[in-house]
Amino acid sequence: MAFLSTASQAPAGVWLGSCAVVEGGFRSLGILDLIKTENNSKVTEFALLGLSSSWQLQLFLFLIFLLFYMAIILGNLLIVLTVRADAHLLQTPMYYFLGYLSFIDLCLSCVTVPKMLGNFLQQDKIISLSGCLAQIYFLHFLGASEMFLLTVMAYDRYVAICNPLHYPTVMNRPLCFQLVFACWCGGFIHSITQVTLVIQLPFCGPNELDNFYCDVPQVIKLACMDTYVVEVLIVSNSGLLSLVCFLVLLFSYAVILITLRTRFHQGQSKALSTCASHLTVVSLIFVPCVFVYLRPFCSFSMDKVLSVFYTVITPMLNPLIYTLRNTDMKTAMRKLRTKPCWVPIMCLETCDRHLVTKHQ
Hints:
Blueprint: H1 2-9, E1 19-22, E2 25-28, H2 31-38, E3 45-48, H3 55-85, H4 87-91, H5 93-120, E4 126-128, H6 129-162, H7 167-170, H8 173-199, E5 208-209, H9 216-221, H10 228-262, H11 268-293, H12 303-324, H13 327-337, H14 344-359
Parallel strand pairs: 3-5
Antiparallel strand pairs: 1-2, 3-4
Helix pairs in contact: 2-6, 3-5, 3-12, 3-13, 5-6, 5-12, 6-8, 6-10, 6-11, 8-10, 10-11, 11-12
């Protein structure tokens, strides 16, 4: 699978510099080892306050978010398999990018939701300092890659609608691959910058994070030093990244809608439906990010709600938005259900029948 192979290689690059030669061979250096060499932090773990302190409410939330997590996994995995199984979709740039988007949502939910589900069943919600920084890295790596990918998808729709005659030539397969690779590279640069700024901060206590996962705004508050400069750098990085991508997307879709209104009438409803689904996803992702990162690091009552929305609700809604409003995806999914080889038992039966026929 083209987009799975690329995606699976991207996160691994972060650990290439984390090996050192020691007596007897190689050993892997964790993030915690790097922290000890950078500063004299006394804190080695953080306590996550989570969404609630009530045991009964936590059990209820566990069941709710378990259902959400199952929907995320099944929905996004279904889109990945559908795009991979259908040759027409795989050769179409829009669905090629959609396969990557679903893969990113699938991975993004795995960064925070499993830990949150486990904490619902525990009294002490503890995460190590190295685990916290790893969570920050993958959260920003996947989140930034998704933002860049949505911008690429907007460019794809712009070329398809505003320059339809040149679309097959412009959006060729090598360019699509290069754009996706650039998204991964941009996400890596963004996330490694965030971790580099945080990893140099000393943590002396307290160690309570008022959220259900680790993120830069909450972690910076616990540093035992003046973090004004670090806050400005991170806001200019995460905040401006979210805002600039959001404005570029709004501008591109505004141009697309104006073009649809003034030039084209045939096929206008399908193009409007596609743009509407993209704008819905863009709003669900970028509005919470702009609110969280493009402001001073002070707490608001809406922070946890926006965190849930960004890490759980949006990855769950994306498959519904892209499949319920898309005829091609629904048709490909119906074809996928008729393929027996997607079910291992049926695959074995098909192979057995083939062997029997061959011997006869």
